[in-house]
Amino acid sequence: MQHVTLNNGVQMPVLGFGVFQIPPEQTEQAVTDALAAGYRLLDTAAAYGNEEAVGRAIKNSGIPREELFVTTKLWVQDAPAEDNTLRAFETSLAKLGLDHLDLYLMHQPFGDVYGQWRAMEALHREGLTKAIGVANFYPDRLIDLILNNKTAPAVNQIETHPFFQRTDYQDLMRAHGVQHQSWGGFAEGKNDLFTNPLLAEIGKEYDKSVAQVVLRWLTQRGVIAIPKSVHAARMAENIDIFDFELTGEQMAAIATLDTGNTLFFDHHDPAMVNWLAKRRVS
Fold first, then answer.
1. Would you call 48 a catalytic residue per the annotation?
2. CA 31 to CA 39: how far, in whole Å?
3. H or E, element range at 205
4. How far apart are CA 88 and CA 111, in angstroms?
5. Does residue 18 surpass a pLDDT of 80?
6. Which of 48, 104, 138, 169 is catalytic?
């Protein structure tokens, strides 16, 4: 497995396994299969409702803790955000059955962001999480957070796929030492991703699937990817992407697929901000 080095020196796998939208009753088996396939980066969140199942799979795997890289995410917290963030962290850690995290992300750029971040900085100083970062932060919010706090996020997990490539934003994050991580790498199949003629033609040259081409494209850009599946064969296929390399011409061709727009939701949309900011996770 290839790794990237975060801004505090922590090594993070460039490819992992995500459990978004996997029901809790299926998550333990899915994570078990993913670990058996060779994944060591696991990505969950309090909002996904499946942290306990992830924890059971980790416990039963027999894999030494130091070989795993476990990420979970903090949901929007009410004031006092610092106290509530610490409680939310303790809850997630208990559900996962772990004594520390490798990466703790602020899931949304809403609520008392600064109070939440100060608490996350404290958790990092205490060694309870090796790195802290954010998710779904657009450039203005990310730069504001960096400029007004002591610790810059190690990671920003954002929607990134062939139809929304975020290339300029990746350059900006790189300039500030923030690692780009993708969610929705397959665009959930939107825009007929899995039958896209360009991606299929590239895959044919290497005897690879469209999914493998997309994951190779992401990781070759230095973007961390966390594909999800509940099928063991698909998991094995998704991790088998390090035996080929896309050419410069192929990377340039894939760049032409970029629409520059989200396929899911806009964090600048007042209605979406209202929904996300008011939702609470127990």
1. yes
2. 9
3. helix 197-206
4. 14
5. yes
6. 48
pLDDT one-digit tens code per residue, 25-35: 999 999 999 99
Nearest 5°: CA angle at 239, between 232 and 152?
Answer: 120
Contacts of 197 (CB under 8 A, 6+ apart): none
State CA 61 to chain mean position distance: 22
What's the token pair of residue 125?
A: 């100083």
Count of positions (residues) in the chain? 282
Which candidate, 124, 81, 117, places its Cα nearest to that of 103? 124
Question: Measured at the alpha carbon of residue 160, what is the angle toward residues 91 and 5, in degrees to the nearest 5?
Answer: 65
pLDDT digits 0-9 by tens, 238-260: 999 999 999 999 999 999 999 99
Peptide bond into 80 cis (omega under 30): yes
Give the domains, in start order, of the chain with CATH numbers: 11-272 (3.20.20.100)
- Give this prediction's pTM: 0.96
Q: Which helix (H) or strand (E) holds 235?
A: helix 232-239
